[in-house]
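[stage:ingest] chain + small molecule (adenosine-5'-triphosphate)
[stage:ingest] validated
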Amino acid sequence: MPYIDIKHLTKDYGNGRGIFDMSLAVEKGEIYGFVGINGAGKTTTIRHMMGFLTPDEGTVTINGLDATKSSAEVKRYVSYIPGEINFPGNSTGEDFLKDQLYLSGRGDWTHAVKISDQFQLDVTANVRSMSKGMKQKTAIVSAFASDADILIMDEPTTGLDPLMRDIFIELLKDEKAKGKTIFMSSHIFQELEEICDRVAIIRDGTIIDVIDMRDIRYNKTKTYKMEFKSFEDFDHFRSLGYNLNRIKLEDLQLNITIHDKDINHLIQDLKHFDLVYFKEIKATFEAYITQIFKEEK
Ligand SMILES: Nc1ncnc2c1ncn2[C@@H]1O[C@H](COP(=O)(O)OP(=O)(O)OP(=O)(O)O)[C@@H](O)[C@H]1O
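[stage:predict] done
[stage:export] tokens:
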């Protein structure tokens, strides 16, 4: 049974807004990403997971428990970082974090201090007067230090600078190594590419694709770009029957897409050609998603 199981979830806000017949399943120990443009339905989905919203149709179960009906019990397994952070009260970061750890019944203050230091977070500051980045860091420290089985995070790196984002990614890897299950939405393709096992792409309230990141990382079909010194070579190469694309006659450049098993054959052929350069075009997750969105239009 999946650890997080969403089946046919629908929340219809009218005028085509909301989420519609959405299903997804997250296995224990997975890092699962959730990507989509503004208004696609990420927060609405996450709020159902936390039991803050009641579905019009469908169900969300977490570790076999209904996220709406058993919301209090589900929260025992889950640490949550909301998309918009507004801390209640007027306490210092330290008092807030200690309260959260106490309330969760789990976690460890020493770990909280360690993570706060890594994030260069001043926990003596008042939570009300904290900047956006400080609030985000405080929420992250609270979630990570509470040692929950599941982390559900709505755009957790918003407001973090690139250095802090790298620290966040390293912490997330540590959590995965401990066997934690992580569900996070993000706009930042690069961070999803680096850490996720799978990524669901949401558009207009519907999941349009689920990408297994291994297919991107270990893609056996690669694209190479090359430029020829002479038109004769360029023209001759074009006649060899390779899978070519992005042919730029005026620059004598082209891309070739080829499976790893055929690379030796290509190298042998290229010995007969005079090249200006030959380089691999790395397949990025961003390019992959952009292609999917183009195909969907
Ligand atoms: N309470 C509500 N009442 C009416 N419409 C809503 C409500 N909450 C969300 N919506 C609409 O539902 C759609 C999905 O919103 P949601 O906040 O889930 O998207 P999102 O993918 O999280 O977007 P963002 O990246 O901007 O946070 C949007 O069109 C939004 O305007």
